[in-house]
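Lab meeting minutes (informal)
Scribe: AK
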Amino acid sequence: MTTVSDALDMTVRHIDDRTAVVDVSGDVDLHTSVALRAYVSALLAQGARHLVLDLSATQYIDSTGLSTFIRLLHAAERCGGSLHLAAVPERLERMVAMTGIAQLLPVHATVDDALAAGTAGPAAGDAEGMPG
């Protein structure tokens, strides 16, 4: 499943029935955040519980994008799951750290690190975890 919205492209890779990696490329901003929320909400509705957003190809994130990540975290937690960010580009790392997003949800250097971390983040109570 691939979706393109303005300057945002999203592709999902299902790791297993409960775990998915969403490759996010382009801009996560006021104009594209609604599409990202809808895309991830659809994955949660389909049974994915543990999500990793691969941001390696993300060009820009504004405050609406950061707010969207928090909304998605809460949506995943309501389903008993987790949300992890992975491969945040160097040009965006400082913004993620300065805004406190990194204290709210796990940020990993790579997708493999995020998958290996399982549910060590906010949804640690989930016994099934993510595959490693």
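Next up, CB showed the second protein from the same session:
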Amino acid sequence: MASKNTTLIFSIALNGYQIRYRRHLESQRRYAEKMGYEYIVVEKPWVTNLGAECCWLKLYLLRAALTAGYQYVLFVDADAYIQNDCPELTSLVKPDKFLFMAKGYSGKLNSGVMLMKSCPESIAWLDQIINAIHEPVSDIDTVGWGENGHVIHFAKGCDGLEVINEKWNNTRSEQCEDYIRHFNYGPMKSSFLDIIFHRIVFKFSKLMLRCNLNKKSEMAEKLKKVQERIPILFNRVISEYKVFS
């Protein structure tokens, strides 16, 4: 079993996600305790001026955790439920790989579950994305909001990527015998409450960033605002959560 001193699991639950996905976050905590991993959920600040775009924070925190001494770091979205029979993370590890991700219901990589290994290559890969936040990616890669499109783009041709079984990030089907069931904005998010909740979050994001999140002509402007605000949020978070420093 991996030591809690070398493996970290973390999630980000801001802007109401702390409340809506409390049960999912508790499943993540139980799994971490069972396996002996360290676990942290970022719940402060409760509200950000980025709305849904605060998801970019995961890249900064992944990099911080990997450079803080953790050998393996797993990021899990707040709306992802880890099943009781989920295996150890070491079952995914391959010696020549540093990034482990599954494809979502769209057939593209889904960044809601990301396992990374600490090595110079993983830090360089994260730096590539972070340095390119202000640059829109192609229509083939984009998902319209958030960092997932950039992750898809920079994962192309990445020798360190291992595409793992969708059981580790099931966004497709309730019939799947999964390890992690991810109720993202897709087939798995079908409840009326979730649909209303996410509409509110996205309207709030539009208001905070003063732009249409789905309008291509405003994408570059939005990304510049994200690039300006994310470091400020990151600095606030690492002052609250010392595991990242």
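CB comment: The mean pLDDT is 90.
No objections, moving on.
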